[in-house]
Amino acid sequence: QVQLVESGGGLVQTGGSLRLSCVVSGRTFSAYPMGWFRQAPGTEREFIAAISRTGGTGYADSVKGRFTISRDNAKNMVYLQMNSLKREDTAVYYCAVYKTMYGWSSQPSMYDYWGQGTQVTVSS
Which of 49, 56, 73, 83 could make an S-S bridge to 30, C-beta 3.0–4.6 Å? Predict the structure, then answer.
């Protein structure tokens, strides 16, 4: 019964910023790692960032220095701050819950619950 609801996507010009939000219910949020992924049309789902239950983070090389993942356990929320956006960042962005309380992975198969996705479009 775990549910995730994402918001914050939209249209932005190259060099602009967006902040994505994800609200999680149905699981003890603070006990599980979380991840952000994205998928452009005709491509595989791509790992973007992950955050452990204690706040440790990891990023894909393509977004290091531009994107920041964070979480607010009191609000059951995870965020993705996206700065210096490029046209290549255009995709549907998904929030996901890791399968276990411990461990970390960039593989989509290691996450068992997903949000509906939110569209991010970066104009050139």
Answer: 73
- 37: exposed, middle or buried (C-beta count within 10 Å: 0-12, 13-18, 19+)? buried
User: Residue 121 above 80 pLDDT?
Assistant: yes
The DSSP secondary-structure symbol of 104 reads -
Q: Phi, psi (5° rounding) for residue 8?
A: 110, -10
Structure tokens at 13: 């010009």
Residues in a beta bridge with 96? 35, 114
Residue the block writes with tokens 């992924």 = 37
User: What number is the average pLDDT over the span 14-29?
Assistant: 91
**Of 65, 64, 55, 71, which Cα lies nearest the Cα of 21?**
71
